[in-house]
Amino acid sequence: MEIKHQLTIKDDKDIIMVRKLGREIATSIGFNYIDQVRITTAISELARNVVKYAGSGTVIIEVVHKFSPGISVTVIDNGPGITSIGKAMEDGYSTSNSLGSGLPGVKRLMDEFLIDSVMEQGTRIEVVKWLKS
Questions:
Q1: What is the pTM (predicted TM-score) of this model?
Q2: Of 54, 61, 12, the residue nearest 39 (C-alpha)
Q3: 3 state SS for 3-21
């Protein structure tokens, strides 16, 4: 089963669409309800960050296979970049007066988390959740 979708994210409607798509794909490959919630929460947080900090970006959702199937979500933007990835990954750190649980929370929800950010060039985050047998 080859499933790969690419969506542009620029506003709240797009966030809702990409969340819905992520849940549908997670359901189709057999994730239980709790993991569906984890995946859609991670997608929502990452997409919201794109809108909030970069204005727009791209979300790629695909089914991947290693030892079991999984769902990979890659979020790419051409925004200002993250000044300090180390600080951004600390619980409670925020540049926008929010709770500061976004990126660290996403990392806890998913099985794999990769982040790359270059100042004035943008940010790329890839997360993966593996289906437990």
A1: 0.89
A2: 61
A3: CEEEEEECCHHHHHHHHHH
